[in-house]
Amino acid sequence: MEKLQADIQGKVKHLKFTLGKTDEVLEPNSALAINRHRDALNTLVGRIDQLKLQVLEELFRIAKLRRSSLLGPQALKSRSPKLIRRSHI
User: Fold this and answer.
1) What is residue 82's predicted lDDT score, i.e. its pLDDT?
2) Among 46, 36, 38, which Cα is nearest to 11's?
3) Which of 13, 25, 44, 64 qualifies as a cystine partner to 37, CB 3.0-4.6 A?
4) Cβ–Cβ under 8 Å, residues 37 and 43
């Protein structure tokens, strides 16, 4: 998880740096430079989105592990009267 966070922080810094160059790129009004800049921004945003999804997947995986360890078969029986009654039938 720490590696993902470090990757995201690095990509966000790169994005901020690239965004800072926007005015410089727009001033000469060069269509080629503007297109390259736009493509660079889109690429960075795409990479950040991919990392964000990886973080969310990791958080869901961690939450699932916590639920499964907290709610094992014995824990479920002790918490649910319906399950206790059904097991005696």
Assistant:
1) 54
2) 46
3) 25
4) no
Q: pLDDT of 13-67, one tens digit each?
A: 999 999 999 999 999 999 999 999 999 999 999 999 999 999 999 999 988 888 8
d(CA 79, CA 34): 61
Ramachandran class of 26: left when φ > 0, alpha when ψ lies in -120 to 50, beta otherwise: alpha
